[in-house]
Design a protein that fits this description.
It is a single chain. This protein is an alpha/beta fold. It has 2 domains: 141 residues, NAD(P)-binding Rossmann-like Domain (Rossmann fold, 3-Layer(aba) Sandwich), CATH 3.40.50; 101 residues, Orthogonal Bundle (ProC C-terminal domain-like fold). Helices cover 55% and strands 12% of the residues. The protein is built from 11 helices and 7 strands. The longest helix has 28 residues. The chain is elongated. The protein starts with a helix and ends with a helix.
């Protein structure tokens, strides 16, 4: 997120404070991005207006409890990227602090994230500010909170699914004769081109597939072999499995 905001000149790097219990983990960001770093979460909150919580779910409650005494409803806005932690659960800990949830993916570092956002129902004064922040980092969409689990799977986990396809395609390219570097460049560009094609035309993907699948041709032979091996079914099952995993985690929390 810090990289993406700085890349877009959205803020002075000195306005960003990154925290981590291990300062060595932040050394690279301090040197490369010239942001502030600290291991003191309370200090960071005192200096900030916007607090972005991006930690694993099992440590989120401790972090919120730690910073609670420093939070001011007239000053602070909390945006949580903690999977499965609802706005209601957050507010049970921190009180009437304006709160939103956002689920970006790692492509925000190159300003190409797809970020799901939901609000607490009283977002009028700050909704546009939140949307503006994430507009610097790629694209975003607003959903009701009961769709955040699905949004997390498709928009956040989805980048890993796409990268796994890219790796598989590149591995196939190596097998048919390209070196690793060139094969990965080709695979990355075809993914980029395919995504831009659909985003630009807004066509259904199958419409574009039809343009390159001639009767008895090379492309349709490859696609049919992939489908026979369960390509589409595996992807759908993987998405459903991730969605089920989120709900299992939510039930455990209850």
């Amino acid at each position: 997120m810090a990289r993406g905001l700085i890349e877009k000149n959205a803020t002075d790097p000195k306005n960003l404070i990154l925290t981590n219990i291990d300062l060595d983990a932040l050394k690279q960001f301090k040197e490369e991005l010239h942001v502030q770093v600290t291991s003191d979460n309370k200090e960071a909150v005192r200096e900030a207006d916007l607090i972005f919580i991006s930690v694993k779910p099992w440590v989120a409650n401790d972090i919120l409890e730690e910073i609670k005494p420093e939070l001011n409803p007239d000053k602070h806005l909390v945006i949580s990227a903690v999977s499965g932690l609802t706005i209601h659960q957050i507010k049970e800990q921190i009180g009437k602090i304006p709160t939103a949830r956002a689920m970006p993916n790692t492509a925000m570092s190159v300003n190409e994230s797809m970020t799901a956002i939901c609000f607490d129902g009283n977002e009028g004064p700050y909704k546009q500010d939140v949307l503006q922040i994430f507009s610097y980092l790629g694209e975003s969409f607003v959903v009701p909170e009961n769709q955040m689990a699905a949004a997390t799977v498709l928009a956040s986990c989805g980048i890993a699914y796409a990268l796994r396809f890219m790796r598989a395609a590149a591995t196939g390219g190596i097998e048919i004769g390209f070196n690793s570097e060139l094969s990965h460049q080709i695979a990355a560009q075809i993914m980029f081109g395919a995504a831009k094609l659909i985003k630009t035309t807004r066509h259904h993907p199958e419409r574009e597939i039809d343009k390159v699948t001639t009767p008895m041709g090379v492309t349709i032979s490859g696609l049919n072999e992939m489908e026979q091996k369960g390509f589409s079914a595996s992807v759908v099952q993987g998405v459903r499995k991730s969605f089920k995993k989120i709900h299992e985690a939510l039930e455990e929390d209850k």
